[in-house]
Amino acid sequence: MAYANPRGSDGYEEEFADIRGRYGDTDYKQLMKFLDAVVESSRVDEGKMAVTGISYGGYMTNVIVTKTSRFRAAVSENGIADWIADFWAADIGYWFDPDQIGGTPLDNLEEYVKRSPAFHAKNVNTPVMIIHSVEDYRCFIDQALAMHTALKVNGKESFLVVFTKGSHGHSILASPRHRRKRLELKLKWIKERLGLASTSDKGEAGVGGKNHRL
Predict the structure, then answer these.
(1) Is 76 labeled as catalytic in the residue annotation?
(2) 37 in Cβ contact with 57 (< 8 Å)
(3) Alpha-carbon distances, residue 179 vs 167, 182, 204 (angstroms)
(4) Contact between residue 189 and residue 129 where contact means Cβ atoms under 8 Å apart
(5) Which has more pLDDT, 24 or 16?
(6) Cα–Cα distance measured from residue 194 to residue 67, given in angstroms and rounded to the nearest whole number
(7) Rounded distance between C-alpha atoms, residue 97 and residue 82, angstroms
(8) Looking at 91-192, which runs of residues are DSSP E strands?
């Protein structure tokens, strides 16, 4: 097991956690350096790597698949895909986004587009499962729809799962049934794309066909 603490993370002083104006850049580069070190020092099968995350981790998953094809599967949860839409809709978007991105979409549109993975979906070669909950008001459901639609428009493999209940922290705060289902779907998606699924795995909870609304 290996854990990274790239810039933008908690754990050190505020200067270390401050990546304003560098989202999807400094953090991405440091995560890839960490991955390189892990691969070099351990017996990692680079042909069977997956990436996943929720919230900021969901955003970074969206970023990562637009910048590299190293991963054979990705699962993005409740993350930002379009900072412009986030500014208009999120409960903290009107003050958080200008502070973190710089200005508003009205006066700094180029930077908002640059930091928004949905606008770079043409670069994605990784199959992506997108999980979101309708009751998430920190990162609205439009973020999942933006990434999913952008991927589909560009002919990429994307599978959308929408939970009708559950907040932004649904991975730990939702009902046990909800949390179990999201975990089952994630594991199944990753196993199938990495060629690790057994015959039983390909049964009733199969993914890859119609999108889910739970």
Answers:
(1) no
(2) no
(3) 12, 5, 18
(4) yes
(5) 24
(6) 20
(7) 11
(8) 128-133, 158-163
Buried b (16+ CB within 10 A) or exposed e, 194-207: beebeeeeeeeeeb
Which DSSP helix (H) or strand (E) runs through 213? strand 212-213
Q: Rounded to an integer, what distance in angstroms lies between the CA atom of residue 185 and that of residue 182?
A: 5
Does pLDDT of 205 surpass 50? no
Degrees to nearest 5, angle at CA 194 with 169 and 124 = 70
CA distance 131 to 134: 10
- Show the DSSP H helices in 42-125 as ranges: 56-67, 83-89, 93-97, 109-114
**If we measure between CA atoms, which residue out of 111, 65, 63 comes closest to residue 87?**
111
Count the residues in the chain: 214
Question: Is 47 in contact with 72 (CB distance < 8 Å)?
Answer: yes
Catalytic residue (choose from 148, 168, 170, 178): 168
Give the pLDDT confidence of 114-128 residue by residue, as tens digits.
999 999 999 999 999
Rounded CA separation 185/212 (Å): 10
How far is the C-alpha of 111 from the C-alpha of 35, rounded, in Å? 27
Structure tokens at 65: 């698949």
Q: For this structure, is 178 an active site residue? A: no
Number of Cα atoms under 13 Å in the Cβ half of residue 14: 0
| Amino acid at the residue 56 | Y
